[in-house]
Specification:
With 297 residues, the protein is an alpha+beta fold. It has 12 helices and 7 strands. A 7-stranded mixed beta sheet has the order 2-4-3-1-5-6-7, with helices on both faces. A hairpin with a 2-residue loop joins β3 and β4. α2 crosses α6, α7 packs parallel to α9 and α7 packs antiparallel against α11. The longest helix has 24 residues. The termini are far apart.
Length: 297
Amino acid sequence: MHWLESINEYIENLILYTKMLNWRDVVEILIIAFLVYYILAWMKTTRAWRLLKGLIIISIFLFAAYRLEMSAIMWIAQNVLGFAVTALIVVMQPELRHALEELGQKSFLPSFVFSSDSSRRMQNFFSEKTINEITKACVEMGKARTGALIVIEKKESLKDYERTGIEVDAVVTSQLLVNIFEHNTPLHDGAVIVRGNRITYATCYLPLSDNLDLSKELGTRHRAGVGISEATDSMTVIVSEETGKISIAYEGELERNLNADEVKEKMRQLLNLNEEDNSKARRKKKVRKQGKEQTRK
C-alpha cells in the first residue's frame, strides 16, 4: 500500500534529518511531543484509549502483512480504509465533542495537563473505609428491600454520565447512601457515582445493556449496571429492590447474590487494593528487617 511505502520512506528521511538538526527543530519536536503526550493522557480517561490500543494492534498486523507481501490482505485493507475512517469518526463522536467543549473553556490547559494524574490520585484515595461504608449501606438497603445503583469510577472518566445527575460532593458514608436511595426522596431515582472516597453525583442516568444473555428476571437497574460496565472500566454495585440481593457488574459481567464478605473482596480485587496492601506490607517488612540488621551491628 502507498501509505506503508510512505512510512518506510519517512523512516529513512528521519535518519538523514537527525544529522541536520538545529535548535528550532529541537523546539518543534518538544512541542509536538508535549501535545502528543497530553492528548494520550486525555484519551486514557475515555473509551478512546481502548479504541487506540485496538488500532495499534491492527496497524502492526497490516505492517507485518505488507512486509510479507500478502497482497490479498493489503487489497482488502486498502478498500476498507476509507470506510474505516468515517466509522471511526462516528464511534468517537461523543469524545470528540467533549474534547472540543474543553478546548473552548478557559481552564482547558490545566485540566488537560493534570487530568490523568488527578485520576490516578483519586483512584489511590479509594480506601478500605469506603469499601466498608458501601458494603454496610448495601446490606442495610438489602434488608429493607431498597433498590440501589452505585457506580465506582476507575481510570475512565464518568463526567458524561455525571452531567445527567445532581451534584452531591460528599464523603462516602453508609448513612448518606441509605438516605439517598430511600423511597420517595428527591435523589433516590437513578445511580450514584463514587470517585475516590466521595460521592460526586446522584440521580445519574446510565446506558442500558442490550446483552441478550442476561436473565429475563433482571430489571432496568441491573441492565443499567451492566450497561455502564460495558461502556467504561467502572464497577457497579447493585441492590435489588425485589429480592434485596447484592450484585456487582464489571466488564459486562454480572455476579449476583453476593454476601457482605464477597462484596468487600470483589471491590478490593477490582480496585487493586489487595496489591496495594501487599506492597505496603512488603515495604514494612523490609524496613523492619533493615532495622533488625542495624541493631545487630
